[in-house]
Task: structure prediction
Amino acid sequence: MKASKMLISTLKEAPSEAKIASHVLLLRAGLIKNEVAGVYNYLPLGIKVLDKVEKIIREEMDDAGALEIRCSALQPKELWVESGRWQKYGPELIRLKDRHEREFCLGPTHEEVFTSMVRELVKSSKSLPLNIYQIQTKYRDELRPRFGLIRSREFIMKDAYSFDKDEEGLEVSYQQMFDTYDKIFRRCHLHFRPVLADTGNIGGNGSHQFMALSEIGESEIAYCDCGYAADVEKATSKIDTYQGKEELPLEKVYTPCDGTIEALEREFNFNAKDMSKAVIYHDFMNERFIIALVRADREVNLIKVVNESNSNENYIRLATDEELASLGLVKGFVGPIGLNNDKIDLYVDFELENHKGFLVGANEKDYHIKNAKYGRDFQGKLCDLRTVKEGDICPCCGKPLKIERGIEVGQIFKLQTKYSEPMNCVYVDEKGQNKPMVMGCYGIGVTRTIQSIVEQFHDDAGIKWPLNVAPYHAVVVPVNYKDDVQRGLAETIYESLKANGVEVILDDRDERPGFKFKDWELIGIPFMIICGKRAGEGVVEFKTRSTLEKEELGISESLNRVLDALEEEKKFNDAI
Ligand code: ATP
Ligand code: MG
Result:
């Protein structure tokens, strides 16, 4: 490819909307272009990378026996009513009407469409198990689209759905997708970790996320050397062995302050481990209030509250001061004793179950109650509500947990019959009876994966694409395009690389050499072959982008360097 015809659109300055390196670099290198918040166009170099990542995904999915299809982004409301998600999905679902007032949504995911397709297409159990997938555009009206392709409102996802006769079949399909994801992300050269995950809006009873490790990741991962790893939304820890000092009768105490944990520690000398913290939520889908009670040095995990209370993440928020007042509660002084309101459900973290006595709010301004004990002084549903933090005890082996950050690039779910049952996606078993198919679903954020690779592979000069996903493998740059010798040598090298199957660019632009080099370093082409002063002697400068190492090499040596690297990469792929 000739650089002059490539619509190269590198930028000197980072657009102000970009806050993280990978977003800045994708924009500056001219791979993507912003349209409106959370919506991007892909330019020619971006499409090259997209194709590479999609090819890896296709090869591995096909290898696992999955079949590719492509569905429309436009989905009729009726399917979403059938699954029950038209109500539940919340404002992230982009809803629209056609000219006949018929309602649709732009698919944020495709469980309904695939389930309805399979219930029509599959008549015999002989077609099962079945795994179908697509690589397609998804729409989610994210509350805060940010970080470019990491959280956008329109993005490309690979989604796959498996259909099995029974649970054992699902286990096999799920494990196969787990292994396939492992291969895909390894071939993308990502540093990643699979972790146990919550099932969120998608539902079902088992899930893993694949996390690209990164400081800018929005997810926190709790992990242990023993192999335990879970998204903090899901992670558990062993209960702290500290269970208070001694059991004493209740004692009301005067605590005039703003009621925060810090004030109680500072002004009244209470220890956070001997206090409780009540967080009050309004579940406005079911018109009720939830009090989550944890030890005061803990944070409440909203996802755990949602799961325990069977509410919905999109329809729950912290109660306002007015709402508290309407319930007869006082901000900063809410406690579990004497709650007498059938609109309030109380959930208590396991860590407080056997605590000998702790401070609780007295439900009266400026008062707390000391020595409260679960079971003796109040009831409530015991459950795991706390957010795991660094140093908590691993639930598997007892060692301290560590925390790191990650970007969720993929997630797999055991859906079981969550969609097949309400949507009547059944097969006829040996006894002639209709049975719901047992489903799994498997997503990869294709465009998010691309940006995660950039986040992991860049330096001050630009992107350092791993060979497998680079838009082109090599670029040949004559220092002065007007110099016949330099141009002639560059063209020869360009042609022989092309003839050997290398994806190569010839920089035929009449620009200053520094300008050209900077462009390729920013774009991140793995190898640069520079034809300069010594072109007449058949000597070129060979630059490796990942290390920025420069060497003078002969012509065939420089060709072989690129070919050897591609051969190495092929071996790496084959070994996966
Ligand atoms: P998140 O928790 O980050 O919002 P999710 O769990 O809702 O994501 P899934 O429904 O599991 O996402 O979708 C499958 C994959 O699609 C995710 O693992 C992620 O890689 C990608 N993805 C989800 N939302 C977005 C988005 N707004 N922009 C880009 N990619 C996304
Ligand atoms: Mg997810």
